[in-house]
């Protein structure tokens, strides 16, 4: 059983942004680079490879409770060009483990220096990978209660998984998403704006380096000579991500992988945390009728939080990472409802 909940359970009004971080860009960057103490000290960690396709494996960093079968398991998904070592992945892991959950920080395909584990690239529609992990943990480890939480692209993937008619959702107890790009086309267009150049260029340069590493590992699979002429994320997705994932084009990829299509189909508790000032996840994508009519989904939207920032004013009862704390509260509330 999870411990007693912190104050302000599932209350979006509890977020009071740090007074010096009212600019969304500053909020986004500072929350990422603010120094945090070693988050996983004293927490047992096990590296595990999961087979997600005949030629592909993904790496998960597993943190088990002493009797893992008696506790819910939270699988965490990182965002675009992230990995299981991202600060938010480690921060949420510590809190969930202390709340008596098993936790798995999952690297998506090729991420976290795992390019050698698969000839393919990751993409925003690989719900089958998460489903394969759930199935393995269910059949081999005999675990029964699963939560999936994700940030940005990982958040969209969690929602997409919950809304699809695949075997995996039957294992889900709930999903959580922080600033999910449920409409990738709109979000990529926002990234292309001049004001978001710092983020856009970071993603482009990081993806180019990853593709070059992949090309060395799998000669002849990727034509890196095309990279020099590509200047945009859309161009990279059109030339590499989409065809590698079986999509016709970047447009087809963006359209088919957006969770906006399946929000109405979600039948497990789902929490979406977002900020109305997110620089490249425009709030208008959440003005979706399914978010108003699907009683399984809770949308928590705050005025100022940046992209996955939510760095709050000092509080007596919790640390500064407000969104992490709300996700743990959500699991607690749903577990308590189940036990009544």
Description:
With 340 residues, the chain is an alpha/beta fold. The chain has two domains: 12-183 and 258-339, Alpha/Beta hydrolase fold, catalytic domain (Rossmann fold), CATH 3.40.50.1820; 187-257, no CATH class. It is 35% helix and 15% strand. The chain is built from ten helices and eight strands. The protein has helices at residues 24-33, 87-98, 127-139, 153-163, 184-191, 197-217, 233-245, 250-257, 289-293, 322-339; strands at 46-53, 56-63, 73-77, 102-106, 146-151, 172-178, 270-275, 297-302. The chain has an eight-stranded mixed β-sheet with strand order 1-2-4-3-5-6-7-8, sandwiched between helices. The longest helix has 21 residues, at 197-217. The radius of gyration is 19 Å and the shape is globular.
CA-atom Rg in angstroms: 19 Å
Give the SSE order as H and E letters: HEEEHEHEHEHHHHEHEH
Lateral arrangement of strands in the main beta sheet: 1-2-4-3-5-6-7-8
Structural class: alpha/beta
* Structural shape: globular
- CATH class placement of the largest domain: Alpha Beta
* Amount of beta strand: 15-25%
Q: What is the CATH homology-level superfamily of the largest domain?
A: Alpha/Beta hydrolase fold, catalytic domain
The domain tally reads: 2
Rounded mean pLDDT score: 93
Task: Give the helix proportion (percent range).
Answer: 25-40%
CATH architecture of the largest domain: 3-Layer(aba) Sandwich
CATH topology of the largest domain, what is it called? Rossmann fold
Enumerate the spans where pLDDT stays under 50 for 5 or more consecutive residues: 1-9
């Amino acid at each position: 059983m999870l411990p007693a909940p912190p104050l302000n359970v599932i209350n979006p009004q509890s977020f009071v942004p740090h007074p010096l971080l009212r600019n969304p860009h500053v909020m986004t960057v500072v929350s990422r680079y603010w120094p945090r103490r070693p988050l996983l000290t004293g927490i047992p960690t096990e590296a595990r490879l999961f087979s997600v396709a005949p030629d592909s494996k993904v790496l998960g960093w597993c943190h088990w409770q002493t009797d893992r079968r008696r506790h819910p398991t939270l699988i965490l998904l990182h965002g675009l060009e992230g990995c299981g070592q991202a600060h938010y992945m480690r921060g949420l892991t510590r809190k969930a483990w202390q709340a008596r959950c098993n936790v798995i920080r999952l690297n998506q395909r090729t991420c976290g220096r795992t390019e050698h584990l698969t000839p393919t690239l990751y993409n925003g529609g690989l719900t089958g990978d998460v489903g394969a992990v759930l199935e393995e943990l269910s059949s081999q480890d005999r675990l029964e209660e699963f939560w999936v939480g994700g940030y940005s692209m990982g958040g969209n993937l969690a929602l997409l998984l919950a809304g699809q008619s695949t075997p995996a959702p039957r294992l889900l107890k709930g999903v959580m998403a922080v600033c999910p790009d449920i409409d990738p086309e709109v979000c990529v267009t926002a990234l292309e704006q001049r004001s978001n150049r710092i983020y856009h260029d970071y993603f482009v340069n990081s993806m180019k380096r990853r593709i070059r590493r992949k090309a060395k590992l799998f000669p002849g699979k990727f034509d890196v000579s095309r990279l020099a002429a590509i200047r945009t994320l859309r161009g990279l997705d059109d030339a590499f991500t989409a065809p590698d994932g079986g999509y016709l084009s970047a447009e087809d990829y963006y359209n088919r992988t957006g969770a906006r299509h399946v929000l109405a189909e979600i039948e497990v508790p789902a929490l979406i945390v977002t900020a109305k000032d997110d620089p490249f996840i425009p709030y208008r994508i959440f003005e979706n009728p399914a978010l108003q009519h699907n009683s399984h989904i809770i949308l928590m939207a705050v005025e100022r939080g940046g992209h996955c920032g939510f760095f709050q004013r000092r509080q007596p009862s919790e640390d500064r990472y407000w969104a992490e704390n709300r996700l743990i509260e959500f699991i607690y509330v749903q577990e308590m409802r189940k036990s009544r």
